[in-house]
Amino acid sequence: MTNVNRKIVLASRPVGAPTADNFRLEQTAIPAIAEGEILLRSVYLSLDPYMRGRMSDAKSYAEPVAVGEIMVGGTVCQVEQSNHVDFAQGEWVLSYSGWQDYAVSNGDGLIKLGMQPTHPSYALGVMGMPGFTAYMGLLDIGKPKPGDTIVVAAATGAVGSMVGQIGKIKGCRVVGIAGGEEKCRYAKDVLGFDDCIDHKADDFAVQLAAACDNGIDIYYENVGGKVFDAVLPLLNTGARIPLCGLISQYNATELPQGPDRMSMLMGTLLVKRIKMQGFIIFDDYADRYDEFATEMSQWLAEGKIHYREDLVQGLENAPQAFIGLLNGKNFGKLVIQTNQAQ
Questions:
Q1: DSSP string of 173-232?
Q2: Which CATH superfamily is domain 129-282 in?
Q3: Could you tell me the residue ranges of all domains in the chain?
Q4: What is the percentage of the chain residues whose pLDDT exceeds 70?
Q5: Are the beta carbons of 162 and 126 closer than 8 angstroms?
Q6: Three-state secondary-structure class, residue 138
Q7: In the predicted model, is pLDDT for residue 324 greater than 80?
Q8: Is the pLDDT of residue 226 over 80?
């Protein structure tokens, strides 16, 4: 075992889009553990859009990362050393140890994954926060019915890909929105979407309207911006909008240009009796995780859910990969392999 713990800290708060200068790689000694503690060695680190919000000191649903502190993030780790009766050396756990190689834990908040999990990194994606977000947002807020039309942006991403596939399982017509021909082809050919529209196309709004000729019953919102502008006039009476993210706005430093559309939005919500509800997955639905895990595990075993990871090697590459994530450069759930499994 090395004596060095690499960690990536927030060097400064970004103004607009994050840059490499906002991060700093530091090295410290690996901490010793006391009685009742375990030393975790990370193997996989999840990168997710919500982390951009934690880099800002604007008021939000969670405390920001302090300048000079380790970037937050979900991790899949192995127990390197254990002085805890409930954890064995070599055991896999789901943790929240952030952008670093090693962390000390007293066991609180850890989820056991076993000694030899088949796909340990799945706990960060399809079986973790993104899959859970897709499941609860669509089923509890969206309430899909057979024959409904669902539209979801970032259709090949960690959440969007799950939303679309769950929608198909529930008997809905699913139209995805993605960036580029390759991603749209994957959404249709592999994920089983009925259609997928490239948001980079000059006539994107026209193509979306043609694909949703009977309107939109559920729009799963995780992007915002011009995508929502194109969706709004297509929403049917009684439409539902689960809102889990607004990635197009995370780097904004001012309000968008153009006329104020708030009155149009409010009028549409009123006249069409549309339900639009934001949610924070573990704040609002933590008590239903077992329900999700049981059903998602079954769908995976039956081949009803396809899952793709975008795996990047090396903790040192996390900042650049995260910057790419905010620009839509990932293809699938973005995961950093920080270390090799033992």
A1: EEEEEESSHHHHHHHHHTS--SEEEETTSTTHHHHHHHHTTT-EEEEEBS--THHHHHHG
A2: NAD(P)-binding Rossmann-like Domain (3.40.50.720)
A3: 4-125+308-337, 129-282
A4: 96
A5: yes
A6: helix
A7: yes
A8: yes
- The pLDDT value recorded for residue 58 is 84
Of 12-21, 173-182, 218-227, 256-265, the poorest mean pLDDT is in 256-265
Sequence-ordered alpha helix ranges (H) in 69-159: 129-136
Q: Which two tokens stand for residue 43?
A: 């193997």
User: What does the pLDDT look like over 93-102, one tens digit per residue?
Assistant: 999 999 999 9
Q: Which two tokens stand for residue 245?
A: 């993210």
Q: Alpha-carbon distance 327 to 329, whole Å? A: 6
Domain 4-125+308-337 has CATH 3.90.180.10: yes
Cβ–Cβ < 8 Å for 243, 142: no
And the tokens for 186? Answer: 């994957």
Count the neighbouring beta carbons within 10 Å of the beta carbon of residue 63.
9
Per-residue model confidence as pLDDT tens digits over 106-133: 999 999 999 999 999 999 999 999 999 9
Q: Scan for tokens 């009977």, then name that residue.
A: 214
Supply 209's token pair: 């309207």
Residue 14 DSSP symbol: -
Over residues 20-63, the pLDDT tens digits come to 999 999 999 999 999 999 999 999 999 998 999 899 988 888 89
CB 51 within 8 A of CB 11: no
C-beta pairs of 281-285 under 8 Å, 24+ apart in sequence = 281/129, 281/132, 281/133, 281/136, 281/137, 281/244, 282/129, 282/132, 283/61, 284/136, 285/132, 285/136, 285/140
